[in-house]
Structures are given as C-alpha cells and as structure tokens.
Design a protein that fits this description.
Belongs to the Vgb family. The chain has no helices and 30 strands. The protein is mostly beta strands and about 325 residues long. The strands form seven sheets. A five-stranded antiparallel sheet has the order 1-11-10-9-8, with no helix packed on it. Strands 2-3-30-29-28 form a five-stranded antiparallel sheet, with no helix packed on it. It has a four-stranded antiparallel sheet with strand order 4-5-6-7, with no helix packed on it.
Length: about 325
C-alpha cells in the first residue's frame, strides 16, 4: 500500500470550479429532470454520495474524483495520482470514498477529511486487471471486479487485498450485495452471474436463460432478487435466488442496449439504454417502461445510483451529470 498527499489535478483545479446551478429539462408529469455540467473532458461516469449529500463522480479521462454540490453546481476535483483512470466509486462505512482505479491497477481510498489517497495495488499476476466496480458487504469488506478476469476484496481494517481469477475468464463487471448479505457479480464477456462465497472466495456460476446476453451490471431489490442489464440482448432480467427462477423483458424501441441498472426504494428498476440514448424506468408490477431521453446525442450513461426520490447518472459522452426526481422530490 502506498500513500499520496492530497493534490489537485492541475493548477486550473486549485480553486473551486463554479458552474451554473443545474439546468432543468422537460419531463413527464410526476418527474423532474436536471443536468449539471461536469469538468470538460473528464468523461464523467460512475457516482456515489457522501455523508453530507454531495455527489462524487469518477473522471475517467482526467484522473480525478470530483465532488459536485447539487445546491450550486460547483465542482471540487481531486487527483487520484499519476496515470489515474477511475471507473467505479462507492462510499465506505468509514466515510471515505473507495475507487476502482484502473489507471494505477489499484483500489484507491480517498479520505474526505484529510484529502489523503491510499492505494491498494493488485498482485502482479493481475496486472492490467481493467478494474471496474466495487461494493461493501454487510461486514464492511470491500469487494471489486476487473473485466480482464479478476474479482477480489480489501479488508479496510488491515489493508489486506485478496484477488482471484474469475472462473469464466474475462468479463466481471457490475457487483451488488443483497439485503441478506450475498455477494453477486455480473460477467459481461462471460454471459453469466456469479455468487461469491466470502469465506472461501470461491464462486457459484448461474447462467441466464438467454444465450450470449451480455450480463453487464447487477443490482438487488429489497427482496434479494437480482436485476441484470443485458447489453447484447437489450433485455432487463431478474433472477430470484430463493426460487432459482428467471424473467426477462425487452427494452422498448429498436436496437436497445441495456447498460446500467439501479433499483430504487420502491423496487422500481432504472436502466440506461444506449440504443435510445435514454434512461428508462421499468415497473415490475405493471411490466411497463417509462423513457427519459437525453436532450443531447451520445449521452452514454454508464452507471446509475440513487437515494430517496432521486436517480443520478453520469453522461460520459457529454461531460454532464443528470438527476431525475420522482414522487414528492419532483
């Protein structure tokens, strides 16, 4: 593990970058849609919230983790180090931001109080792991994936990192922890999902019924069911581990490409569709979709996150952050 002092990305980042408060856009009744500018050229993508309600997003292209204040749109970028290319970010039980840092082939921890960045490098046998997404289990252990065929964990108490080759080869992408504490990841290139045994680190593979579907990201609902965005098939599918049962629905339109998935507090399922350049909401009760197209071409929202009454995503193609509010929040 190496330690780096808090640094700003460049001299131009030394001061807070002031942006206009988010620009509202038209949305369906009961919803509000707002766009916030991200740093130009940053390729804004995966996001997380801190304990103060601020939004942090990965700047995969400029090597920063940037804090967005939704109240005024201001941006506070933090460099994660030389050659950094962050992919996924999540808030840890310790109040720090934990990042899959593909550029340095390490897990990064940003202490929000001190600004220190700690790195937990992967073993040499997993060089160029193409780190993807991370999450914390119910015991406070951080689990992560790498598309080049690796998954692993970091124990924040000791700093020990363990990593294993994925049994399906390349592909581990999205990862989630169910309310019961089970850890699952989706394998894009491997076309499957897998449960990790936290005691042994071994996996149990489960294959969706659609061949070569491209299971990309996965998110649990309140019942422990797993919702999967299928990139190749353009479907959203759900797997119930208790019943070992599957259901699938095709996203609307022609040529859908389901990328991100997120399940809100009402168990409504949100996805991003690259084919329609839109965020869509799926209601499992009515089995119906609602669509929220971007007002700019090539939005490429690669990750969704949310909190009560809100869903957030990073428009990696437009260097913007999008917020959809619903219910009372709208």
């Amino acid at each position: 593990m190496s330690r780096r002092d808090f640094t700003m990305a460049a001299a131009s980042c030394a001061a807070v970058l002031s942006m206009p408060i988010g620009q509202a856009a038209l949305a369906a009744p009961g919803f509000s849609l707002t766009y916030f500018d991200a740093r130009p050229g940053s390729r804004s993508r995966d996001l997380a919230f801190d304990r103060d309600g601020m939004v942090w997003y990965c700047g995969q292209r400029d090597g920063t983790l940037t804090r967005l204040d939704p109240a005024d749109g201001s941006l506070h970028p933090v460099s994660l180090g030389d050659n950094a290319a962050p992919h996924g970010v999540t808030l840890g039980p310790d109040g720090a931001m934990w990042v899959t840092e593909g550029g340095q082939n390490a897990i990064a921890r940003l202490d929000l109080a001190s600004g220190d960045v700690d790195l937990f490098p992967l073993p040499t046998e997993f060089a160029r792991a193409n780190l993807n997404t991370g999450t914390f289990d119910l015991d406070g252990i951080y689990w992560f994936t790498g598309q080049n065929g690796v998954y692993g964990r970091v124990d924040p108490a000791t700093g020990k990192l363990d990593a294993w080759p994925s049994p399906g080869g390349p592909g581990p992408y999205g990862i989630t922890v169910t309310p019961g504490g089970d850890i699952w990841y989706a394998s894009l290139a491997g076309n499957h999902i897998a449960r990790i045994d936290p005691a042994t680190g071994q996996t149990t593979r489960v294959d969706p019924p659609t061949p070569r579907q491209g299971a990309r990201r996965v998110w649990t609902d309140s019942r422990g069911r797993l919702w999967i965005s299928e990139w190749n098939s353009g479907q959203v599918s759900v797997y119930d581990p208790a019943e070992e049962s599957w259901q699938q629905w095709k996203l609307p339109g022609t040529g859908p490409r389901a990328y991100a998935v997120y399940v809100d507090e009402r168990d409504k399922v949100w996805l991003t569709d690259f084919g329609a350049n839109a965020i869509v909401m799926f209601d499992p009760e009515s089995e119906s979709f609602s669509s929220f197209p971007s007002d700019r071409a090539g939005a490429n929202v690669r990750h969704l996150i949310g909190r009560a009454g809100e869903v957030w995503g990073g428009e990696s193609g437009n260097d913007r952050i999008v917020r959809i509010r619903f219910g009372d929040a709208a």
